[in-house]
Amino acid sequence: xxxxxxxxxxxxxxxxxxxxxxxxxxxxxxxxxxxxxxxxxxxxxxxxxxxxxxxxxxxxxxxxxxxxxxxxxxxxxxxxxxxxxxxxxxxxxxxxxxxxxxxxxxxxxxxxxxxxxxxxxxxxxxxxxxxxxxxxxxxxxxxxxxxxxxxxxxxxxxxxxxxxxxxxxxxxxxxxxxxxxxxxxxxxxxxxxxxxxxxxxxxxxxxxxxxxxxxxxxxxxxxxxxxxxxxxxxxxxxxxxxxxxxxxxxxxxxxxxxxxxxxxxxxxxxxxxxxxxxxxxxxxxxxxxxxxxxxxxxxxxxxxxxxxxxxxxxxxxxxxxxxxxxxxxxxxxxxxxxxxxxxxxxx
Length: 347
Known about the structure:
Keywords: Cell membrane, Ion transport, Membrane, Transmembrane, Transmembrane helix, Transport. It contains 16 helices and no strands. It is mainly alpha-helical. The protein folds into 2 domains: 15-193 and 258-278, no CATH class; 283-338, no CATH class. The termini are far apart.
């Protein structure tokens, strides 16, 4: 049993690691998009419009990188996909040059073969690299090419002084590095399957254990050995099958990572960032409904501007020393702030 426990532990770590790469991609992509949209200064008038269009182009490249990486990990070298074609159609890439206009990018699968693939029948599983091998022109590496375009755009922003503060320049470079790290890490997971010797050994050990198990239990369990061994065989073979299932976590199977959902979520997050102009702090600081001392006080920022600095600091001290539940009790605010000479002023 300790051996099976060790195997489950290894599987858990592997699943966590593959998910970690896409979490890092989401984080670095949002960081880079925020820097491009907020910390990239816009000019006035028509020049400002050009700046906005350039920003949107750069942010779209971030989405294009994630989508292109998804297709690359699925051995889909084409660009004629609904979620990719419009994002990279304006770029000069090897994949674009190798694209056959008559190829729609998807191929139908027959009913019997589809059932066999669903049941993981070895003879029904197609070689995922078939489309790559059939290409007559070099396919290049689309995520790498997109990252090169994105790096060139960020480099231009820094050379023109549009991202002025060194801290944001450093964060942009770190985000680009993290995106490349994600690409390298996912490729390593994809191209480093479980060695064939391990696969054969696990299969042999599993079957030997299952065949010997009834002889170990029959003396103690009697006829219950039969249903017990059936259940045990199902569990043990299921654990062994997981090893083969997680070798490629980036496909379209039920147990694979939902890369389509991840890419859609990333695109939606970046749309939220670009949905409004870069905010100016004074605009949201001065709003009347900015309750700076809630839940202690329902007064807005304008009301607190009319009070002395001593009252403000006294209220801050009261807020720090009184539990939130206490402040919610009727009359507690007046009792707390009365000791600080502002009870009658705080609603």
